[in-house]
Design goal:
CATH architecture of the largest domain: Roll
Order of helices and strands: HHEHEEEHEEHEEEEHHEEEEE
Number of domains: 3
Largest sheet: 6 strands, antiparallel
CATH class of the largest domain: Alpha Beta
Distance between the termini: 43 Å
Structural class: alpha+beta
CATH topology of the largest domain: Structural Genomics Hypothetical 15.5 Kd Protein In mrcA-pckA Intergenic Region, Chain A
Number of helices: 7
Length: 259
């Protein structure tokens, strides 16, 4: 038996982690690969940290393409081999003429959930402008969506499965930079990395729009370290690289910004 109570202590996403541990127990009993629903980045980060402490269980995550945010987790006994091919996914085209009624990510997601589908059965949605969108979903949902997803906003749409090679994935743009700061405070480093004023960054932090390593951080004075990942809704990600102390005892920080 897995030490479920102990593993759930302090968990931020306790309901999700509890379900994953139940699935891990099932995988141990049945000697089968068990798949989770799609996990958000913070849920996945917490799950991977939790399972890293378990020697009897192995996992692999995949969301259909390397930069996918929402991913499913395959869980198995540690003596069973795992690869991405075991994470069952389907790619979908949601096509329509959105030239005169543009639809956002929220519109496509709302239309999908409006059919009665649960959120954790849908992965990333790639909006393609006037052509519609593409989505990743659990394979068993494909026939249902082909039949029941018929409209997004005012636009009639057609849904069909497509090969993953046809996904229109935009490669993230990466900008490397160096900043020198008096401290490793979140507001100082993030304002430099994202090119925002210190006051604007403090406001974003206080309103809950900033995460560090996928965890909500509400204190501007939060201390960072090399390897930390800062995310801001709608503004991308900032990765901290090497940190060195200058002769004037300031911090020279290597940064990578992905947008």
């Amino acid at each position: 038996m897995l030490p479920k109570t102990q593993l759930l202590q302090g968990a931020e996403y306790s309901d999700c982690m509890s379900r994953l541990l139940d699935q891990a127990t099932q995988a141990l009993k049945t000697w089968e690969v068990v798949l989770s629903g799609f996990l958000s980045p913070p849920e996945l980060a917490e799950a991977q940290h939790m399972f890293a402490a378990l020697t009897e269980v192995t996992t692999i995550a995949w969301g259909g393409y390397p930069q996918a945010e929402r991913q499913r987790l395959a869980i198995a006994r540690s003596d069973l081999p795992l690869d991405q091919a075991q994470v069952e996914l389907s790619a979908l085209s949601i096509s329509g003429n959105f030239l005169f009624d543009p639809a956002s990510h929220r519109d496509f997601l709302g239309a999908i959930l409006g059919t009665g589908i649960v959120r954790d059965q849908i992965g990333d949605i790639l909006v393609l402008g006037e052509r519609g969108a593409q989505a990743i979903a659990s394979p068993q949902l494909v026939p249902f969506l082909e039949t029941h997803l018929t409209q997004v906003r005012t636009v009639p749409v057609q849904v069909e499965a497509i090969p993953f090679e046809q996904l229109k994935v935009r490669e993230p743009r990466c900008k490397e930079m160096t900043t020198v700061e008096a401290s490793m405070r979140l507001d100082a480093v993030a304002s430099a990395g994202f090119g925002l004023s210190r006051s604007k960054m403090v406001k974003l932090i206080s309103t809950g729009d900033v995460r560090v390593n996928w965890k909500d951080i509400s204190q501007s004075s939060h201390s960072l370290k090399a390897g930390d990942l800062i995310t801001i809704r709608g503004k991308g990600r900032l990765e901290l690289g090497e940190v060195n102390i200058t002769k004037k005892e300031r911090y020279r920080i290597q940064l990578k910004r992905f947008s």
